[in-house]
Structures are given as structure tokens and as C-alpha cells.
# Entry
Amino acid sequence: MKKNSKDSIVEAAIYLFNTKGFSGTTIRDIAQKANSNVSNISYYFQNKHGLLEYCFLKYFESYIAELESAFLCIDQGAKATLQKMAESIINYHTENMQLTRLILREMSIDSQTVREIMSTYFAKEKYYFKAVIEEGMITGEFRQVSVSFTIVQLKSLLSMPFLNTHYLSEVLHVFPHEPYFTQKYIGEINNWIEGVLTPHHPKELVFESI
Amino acid sequence: MKKNSKDSIVEAAIYLFNTKGFSGTTIRDIAQKANSNVSNISYYFQNKHGLLEYCFLKYFESYIAELESAFLCIDQGAKATLQKMAESIINYHTENMQLTRLILREMSIDSQTVREIMSTYFAKEKYYFKAVIEEGMITGEFRQVSVSFTIVQLKSLLSMPFLNTHYLSEVLHVFPHEPYFTQKYIGEINNWIEGVLTPHHPKELVFESI
Amino acid sequence: MKKNSKDSIVEAAIYLFNTKGFSGTTIRDIAQKANSNVSNISYYFQNKHGLLEYCFLKYFESYIAELESAFLCIDQGAKATLQKMAESIINYHTENMQLTRLILREMSIDSQTVREIMSTYFAKEKYYFKAVIEEGMITGEFRQVSVSFTIVQLKSLLSMPFLNTHYLSEVLHVFPHEPYFTQKYIGEINNWIEGVLTPHHPKELVFESI
Amino acid sequence: MKKNSKDSIVEAAIYLFNTKGFSGTTIRDIAQKANSNVSNISYYFQNKHGLLEYCFLKYFESYIAELESAFLCIDQGAKATLQKMAESIINYHTENMQLTRLILREMSIDSQTVREIMSTYFAKEKYYFKAVIEEGMITGEFRQVSVSFTIVQLKSLLSMPFLNTHYLSEVLHVFPHEPYFTQKYIGEINNWIEGVLTPHHPKELVFESI
DNA sequence: AATGAATGAGCTTTCATTCAT
DNA sequence: AATGAATGAAAGCTCATTCAT
# Structure
């Protein structure tokens, strides 16, 4: 009768953690939404917190995989690679908006989970970003910039819209769920790469902007 | 005996909501940290949620005031004004990092509070950003851009570093609390204004980058 | 500004104790309804329970006074006196319906208050009822009946309609507040005195009694 | 380990609600007396109020069943039927004195529960009383009386002794728990039916009295 | 005489978890 | 693999009362 109890629990958890926050969600909420029994959560994930950790892992495994895959074409140039990385992340975030929002929010809470589980993933993520930026600076594709501050900006631009989807849709009337958004926002990121990271060779660059 | 019970409750609440999340914080935690009595929370703020709302109002009243004040110099040019607005916000966020982080996180939860309380503030904020961007496009200081997508980016850049302070300090070794950060990050935002918003007049712009 | 704080507190208390029960009413409810301050309750009545006791005394002082006054005409015959006593009680209950209902309900709770405060009043009440019934039995106006069981019935008939006013009005469409009710119900009590207490055929019936 | 948690909770609740009133009883009291856990009250009855409603239903289901069963012999005459109904109610009240007292008291509080839950039961009860009284008036067994006012008296006589058991035992020294009381009080009710409801045909009636 | 801030105890309810099946 | 009853801890909140003014 139940397709897959474990999966439906995770699905329900992502939705509810995202909507009401981790602490604001009860395991009964989750069990009910998943059409499962409360005890199954303990059974599969040890306890409520284990379920959250599972969600974190689920997110980061894929996230890093996307990043890794995009990084493979580094020999085609730093700019192209960075553009591909940004595009991959935006696509991944768009396709997993609930999970992304949950991670981005809970990450900002000061907890053991964040420190322990995520440090390795963040280290990897930093490695790829740093590598591509430094490569670009060496080849002259990028200006000489602060790697850290560049990563700060890049991550800001790639995360925020998915964290504040309400704000986007209700205040700015920009709808991250629509396919048009993804396309357009990738263009904006490329503009940022051009305008902020790339050295100004006047003639060509003017025509890149939308 | 107690100097100011109400204020110390708010202060404790901001710290704890920020550190452990709203749902993850108990009113007993707050009362204890504030050296006050649990009942006083109900007494002053009706209930736990009222205390959160109070924090929201506290943040937004000042935030909008900062924005409004910076907007006053609009006759000195759109770019200068936008730079001043960004600087004001960064300064305000730096000085109220705890509160800012709390607001930015809880805002992303799907609740009545967010919708009802904040809609007016967001409308005002949007008004100022839109006004300055459109002014810039009219005078030719800014390129022709999508107002909404520009606001998305601007808000991303102005918020994210204050939401993920752990990440910045522990992964990137960038410390938002240090005075150097503020100064440097304001420069980065100005770069963004130059590189992304300002039309390329080759000669001058090259020298603006840090 | 306040006419009489004490009186308005009592008035509010009677209404609220009656509507929501003693334990179900908070002193803040009372203070608010009385347009007074919470602390005044402690000031005037020591504490919440003192206020209840005050209500009990208020009721019983008047109640016993009514009974006493009606009993004075005992030399005009037992039946006439009993009728007058019943009429007085019904009138008093009608005029103080809220207070009456409150007393009748709280009396049924097993508490110190009931035992201590009321025992003297109940003793007095019993004395008058017993006196009039026994007088009637001596003079032959009444049949030989059990005094206790007669008092049970009499008190039942004189109390219940005022305890269950909702039931009367909503189920039976009998409205104790209307003047017609009082008049009619006094008639019913007199019927009861006639039919149950008075011998039908003086000579024979005397022997029927238990 | 626990035999029947639900039943023991109900039993404890009836005793305590009766003794201390609904609002005056805490669920900790109940759980302790029932040797159960506080949470089980929520588990079985949703909340404290749900437990009260359960008691109401428990009472009325049986009460109406008694009434219905007694009403079946209506073809044996209205008076006999009414006597049987009264007897059934007195027996039921005697056997369930705690519950009865609880219901009678809480019924007098002005609440949603009373209005919603009980209206149907009261309608049924009224139907049976009305039917038997009207039948009696048609056949000439009963005098022409007001149905409503007769029900008021009947219910008064059948309820009050069970509501004020303290008063009966401590003031009047009448003990409703003793078997003698039931027998005697049924006799009193029959006297009331004879004296108040039955037309006076001197010769015959004399022999009917007990 | 009256007020409003402050207190601490205690209440109802919720929750994550465990146990027996 | 899955269920539902049961548990103890703790959470949010309420309340009668007191204190300082």
C-alpha cells in the first residue's frame, strides 16, 4: 500500500522543515503528511535530528557533484567554467527549491550539525571556487580580485533568490518557479562575471549586456 | 530592583532567537538570560510570538529610516545616492548583526507575521530602490536594466554576508565584525554598481577597481 | 470617576462566577469588568476566595431575612405562612437570579466554605421550615408527613428553576425573567402544598400518613 | 502494565470533577488518581474539555436509554408509565450519583458544550415527558395542567436531591446512598403524581396513596 | 485609595521517544 | 517492517498574589 515509506518521510520532512522550520515541525506532522507512522522516523533515521542530517547530506552530495562536474571543463577557460558552475547551481537550486531553502536557512543557525556535517562540503566548495577564480586571474581572464570576497558575492547571488522566494514573488513579482526566471537570472550572473570579474576591454564588453 | 526588564528581555531574545532559532528558543531561556521572570514576556509582549514581532518592528523601523535618510540626497545623482544607501545598510547591518541575522532567517519562513507585518516595509524599501534605479536610468548614470532583477542582486549582496557569518569566518576567514570588512565590502558593492549598473565609458572606469 | 469600586467588583464577580464558575473566572476578568484594578480585590476582600465568601454572605443574609420576615405571621396559620415563605423565596430568587444561581451551584461543590460558612444559615432555614411544617401537622392543616422529605421537595421546587434557567428558556420555553413566570410558579407551589401537604378529606386522610 | 487506562481516567475524572468542579480539577489530579500519565488524557480525549464532554455523553446516553425503556409501557396507562419513568430515573441517579451530580452542576454553566451537546438529549427527554403527560390528560388520568410547568417540577424533584447530597446528609440527615432513601423518595414522587397531577375523585383516590 | 509592574507557582498541552506487539 | 499505546520531560502560558509607588 505504501510505496516507499522512507522516501515519503523525507519528502514530507523537506516540505515541512522548509515551511515551518525544523524546530517548528513535529514528527507527527511529518508522519501524517507522509501517511506513515511516527515510530518509522526513529526506525529509519534514529530520531528527528537524524532526519534533518539526512536532508543535509542529500542536498550536499548532489550539490558538490554538480559543482565537480562543472569544474571538469576547466581546461576550456576559467570564465566559461565559472559560468557553467553558476548555471549548474542555479539549475540545481531551481529544481530543489524546497530543500535548498531549508538548507540555507538552517545553515544560519549556530549548531553542531552545521559545523560538523558541513565543514567538509564547504571546504570542497571553496576549493572549486577558489581554483577557478585563481586560474582566471593567472590566465588574465579575470581581474586581480580578493578570492574570499568574490566567493562571498558569488554565493550571495546564487543563494538569496532561493531563500526568499516569497519576497521575490510577492514584492518584486519575480517568480523563481517559472522557467523564464532561471534563464534570465543566469544572464544576470554572467553580467556580474563580465562587469565585476572580467577586465574591461571596452569594445567587446558593451554588447554583452542585456 | 530590575533596571529595565523589557529591554533586557528584547536583548536576550534577539541573541537567542538568532543563535537557536525562534522555535528552538524557549521563553524560559530568554527569561533566564534576561534575569527576568517568564511571566514578564507575556506581560510586555502578550506572548512569545509578540516578542518576535516586536523584534521585527524594531529592525524595520530603523532600517527604513536609514534608507529614507540616505535617499534624501537623490538630487546629487542616482549613483551617489545608491552608494550612500548601500553604505548605510551595510553599516546598519554591521551594527545590528544579531538582529539582522534573525530577521533575514525568520523572514524566509512562511508565516502570517512575515506577510502581514512586513508587506508595508517591503513596499517602502522597494519604492526607494526602484526610484533611485529609475532615476539613474533616466539621467544615463545607469544602464537600462530590469529594476526587479537589479533589486534581487542588490539585496542578495547586502544581506547574505550578515546571514552566514559562520560561513564567512570559518570557511572564508572573512570576519564581518572587524571594521576592515565593512570598508572593504562597501568597496565591493561600489564595484558592482560600477561594473554591472554603470555604462562602460572605457577610460575612466578601469581605474575604479580596487 | 469610579462610583463605588467595591460594589462594582461584587457585581462583576457575581455575573462572572455565575457565568463561568468560580474557578473558571480570573480576578483579571473581574477587575476588567468592574473597571477596577486587580489589586483592589485583594485590598477589599483579602483574596479571590474572600470575594466568593462575601457573595455567599450577601445571599444568605437576605435570604434568611426574607424567611424570618415571612415566618412572623405564623399565628395566621401554617399553610398561609408556608405559602408566604415560598412566595418570598421565589420573589427573592427572581430578583437575584444571578447570585442565586451562583450560590446553588457552588454549594454543590465539596468545600470548606460551604461547610463552615453555610452550616449556620442552613440550620436557621431548616428551623423555620420545620417549625411551620410541624405547626401545620399539629393543627391538622397538614397531613402527617416526613419533615425532612418534605423540606427536600420544597427546596427542590424552589431552587431548580433558578439554577437551570437555560434549560427552562431554551428547552421548555419558560422564561423565569418574565413577571408572568413568578406569578404562575407561585401558583404551582401552592398546588403542591394543596395536593401533597394538605389532607383531602380531613377526617379520613389523617390516617393515611406514614 | 496498566489494565485499562481510559476507563480509570474517566472514573477518576468523574470523582474529581464532581468533588472540586471542572475548572477546579487539574489533569495532574486526574492522572494521579487514575495511576496514569497526564499525556494519556490528551491522547484519549484530545484535551481536558474533551474528557468532560465524554462524561456528558456517557451520562446522557444511559439516561435517555432508561427513559426510553420505561416509556415502552405507555399502553398500560399514563400514570403507571410516569411512575415507572420516575422510578427508573431515581434508580439511575442513585447508582450514578457522582456522575449525575457532575452533570447537573456543569449543566448550569453557560457554555458551548451544554448548548451543543445536550440540546438533542434534552429534546428527547422533553418529548417523552410531554408525551406521557398529554396522554394522561387525554385519557383523564391526569388533570389539565401546563406541560412545561409540570416538567419543571418533575425535573426539580428528580434532580435536586442528587445535586445537594451534602445538604441532605449533613443538614437534614437524609442519606441518599442508603437503599431506604430510594424506596421512600419514589413514594414521595408518587404522592406528587397523585396529589398534583391526578384529578380528585375522593372515593377511589384515597386508596391509592401509600 | 488605587495603580501597574513583577513574581513564582502551577496549569494545560505538546512533543520526541520508547515499548509491546 | 510497521503500528499504536504509553511515557516523562518540557514548553507556552495563566493566574493569584505582592510590592513599590
Remarks:
- The CA atoms of residues 6 and 16 of chain D lie 15 Å apart.
- Residues 202-210 of chain D have pLDDT under 50 and may be disordered.
- Residues 1, 26-28, 38-39, 41-42, 47-48 of chain D lie near DNA strand E (CB under 10 Å from a C1').
- The two ends of chain D are 54 Å apart (CA to CA).
